[in-house]
Amino acid sequence: MIVYLLCGITVAIAFVQAVLYIRMAKKMTVKANIPATVPKTAFRVGLISAIGPALGVFIVMVGLMTSIGGPMAWQRLSIIGAAPTELTAATLGAEAAGAELGGAGFTLKVMAVSWFVMALNGAGWLVVTGLFTPALENLRTKMSGGDSKWLVVMSGACSLGIFGYLDVNEIGKGWGNAAAVAGGIIGMAILEKFVAKKVPKIREYNLGIAMIIGMLFAIIYDMAVGA
Question: What's the rounded Cα separation, in Å, for the pair 111 and 91?
Fold first, then answer.
């Protein structure tokens, strides 16, 4: 229970940050004279799009709880959300202490080492983000030259590069992952080209629906291979 209370402090801070960001966004919409419907739509889109990733994190968290305990699994995945990364860090920590994660020799001391490695792994991201985000924002502004249209194009190109990089890594992991990527791409193309033209409002949920379609493709492939 003590560990749950200690981990709960970090989770509570993350929750408070989310509330503060929402408040800050509302204030900014007023200053920028943005219609009230825009932030509501953005919030709804983000909520729907988060369902797919949240389900994936929840499933992995259940497995992670058996190895590193419920409190730490809850805390780490509440602030990081990258389940594979956390699992890798916990495994490396256990191996560094001369044991197997959740296996023979996984004592309380070994689990503490795994916890420490997970915390240290996440700390690097926080330090880099805190130190370099303002400088990167200034760099982005200089590269765009103050042109809002060029800034949109550049941001879109960066997003394509990031998601393309992530997709390539997933495709390399096997046919099941490739099926998920292909399903997401096909689903997004159909939704954007055909469905959204007839029902424009569904465009808000395209990303979330495409994620679900990708997962269904992966499930179908796994079932077919298993059969």
Answer: 10
158 inside domain: yes
pTM, 2 dp: 0.59
- In a domain? residue 9: no
pLDDT of residue 206 exceeding 70: yes
User: What is the tens place of the pLDDT at every residue in 140-160?
Assistant: 777 767 677 787 888 788 888
The total number of structural domains in the chain stands at: 1
Measuring CA to CA, how many Å separate 40 from each of 28, 31, 37? 13, 16, 5
B/e letters for 29-67, b = 16+ CB within 10 Å, e = fewer, are beeeeeeeeebeeeeebeebbeebeeeebeebbeebeeb
Residues 123-133 have pLDDT tens digits of 887 788 888 88
Is residue 206 one of the residues assigned to a domain? Answer: yes
pLDDT reading at 107 higher than 80: yes
CA-based nearest residue to 116, from 90, 78, 154, 155: 90
Q: Give the span between the Cα atoms of 150 and 188, in whole angstroms.
A: 25
> Three-class SS of residue 120?
helix
The pLDDT confidence band at residue 81, using thresholds 50, 70 and 90, is low
CA 141 to chain centroid, in Å, comes to: 26
